[in-house]
């Protein structure tokens, strides 16, 4: 069973970030591959220990969800729309955050919904991260951010 979806910021002080990286991703499905490549390169520099594969999988799921569910259009991609991937590291924590232009609340399907061919991405995010949630953007920014938190081994 999935934990209730948390609306709010990750429980970390943004001023204490030790490393950060971000990239803009175009509104096309090839962006998932680009996100994985960017994430792998960043994580190799940061030495995140045994969480490497978990983080890469979760980034793929978050970006896929943003492209599939959050971009405007009738199933086709709007070339002017984009998503943004942020990776932020604290001493023993890492957050992956994907910003998209939608105001829709992310909806997780139950793991037992075997009839669905898709829709289990947030279940994977829940399974492989140590916490996740979302928050709407404020001010002049439109959309939302969906984030996942990872605990890192001490000294990683």
Automatic annotation (TrEMBL):
InterPro entries attached to this UniProt entry: Anti-sigma-factor_SerPK, HATPase_C_sf, HATPase_dom
Residues annotated as domain Histidine kinase/HSP90-like ATPase: 25-131
Keywords for this protein: ATP-binding, Kinase, Nucleotide-binding, Serine/threonine-protein kinase, Transferase
Pfam families linked: HATPase_c_2
SUPFAM superfamilies: ATPase domain of HSP90 chaperone/DNA topoisomerase II/histidine kinase
Listed GO MF terms: ATP binding; protein serine/threonine kinase activity
CDD domains to which the protein is assigned, alphabetical: HATPase_RsbW-like
Protein's name according to its UniProt entry: ATP-binding protein
Species this chain originates from: Streptomyces shenzhenensis
